[in-house]
Amino acid sequence: MNQKLDYQLLEKILRQTQPELKQMLNSRLKEQGYQTTVECGYLYAPGDVPVLLVAHLDTVHRQPVQIICYSENRRIAMSPQGIGGDDRAGVFMILQIIKKARCHVLFCEDEEIGGKGAEQFAKSGIKPQVNYLVELDRRGRNDAVFYGCANQEFIQFVEGFGFQEEFGTFSDISIIAPQLETAAVNISAGYYYEHSPREYIDLVHMMNNVQRVIKMAQTDCGHFRYVWGRSFGFGGWQERLPLWDFTPEEKVQDLMEVPTEAYVKVNGQVVENGLLHYMDKSGNVYDYLDEVGAAVLAEHTKAYTLDDQPLEFSEHLAEPVEVMTLEEAFRFLNAI
Known about the structure:
By secondary structure, this protein is an alpha+beta fold. It has helices at residues 7-15, 18-31, 85-97, 116-123, 152-159, 173-180, 203-217, 326-334; strands spanning 37-39, 42-45, 49-56, 69-70, 76-78, 103-108, 132-138, 143-145, 164-166, 184-188, 191-192, 200-202, 251-257, 263-266, 269-271, 276-279, 285-289, 294-297, 301-304, 318-324.
């Protein structure tokens, strides 16, 4: 693993609560010569490079990270409490990027409950003079999500650094970019299986994108304006509607992962479909679909132990997991 990675800083970011992290980042930015604006919902600091970097401070996990586990080569980081790479990886990346490119910085609170901090920033009247926005709040290694922005010149600019356009539902830039009338992209931050107990961070993927965003920020360009009018498969609509109007009505439930030593039956028949299964406190079983990033209720399905006893739900093993109905999942997939 890259010996230059600051594991101590990374772990500090992963372990802190949202208020603690906001305070720490404010102090750290000031130490680096930034002048910060700290308000309810966000922390903003203007820079010299005309690029606004965005990440959010909250995670979906209810417990702070206590134990951090690494793979043998220290490339993969996980936690029994949920590692919170979404979006603590993005926070860490920004602190690395501004060492080489002194960009504008925005850290938002409460993205996971509807972008509350982003809304506060959008209402603040702050108008950074930047060419574009980069949010670091996307799973994977090469994704670039533009949401409702249809500026093809900007899309080509971003893809020129090796990223590939993908579909996404919502992030803070969905609110901020239209308000600033400036193009924006959400870039992969190296985390995987977000919003689930299996979440992990691939530190190589994360740091590779730190270098790519630095290169992007150091590349001369003009202002990329925000262009409305993307079509996402809903009857060819071209209206000026934010993308979250089309978003499935996701919600979070406390679910327990069905262990590998158990099995599931559908209509009394044992099935092995290769999916990750969860169970709620009522014994209902859910299939976790990576394509939609949520668990979907599986009808007529029950979980059993190897001795054919109904699997019991454990509050201790439960984690908050996004769920949606089968109809919502189909609607989501049809939009991709």
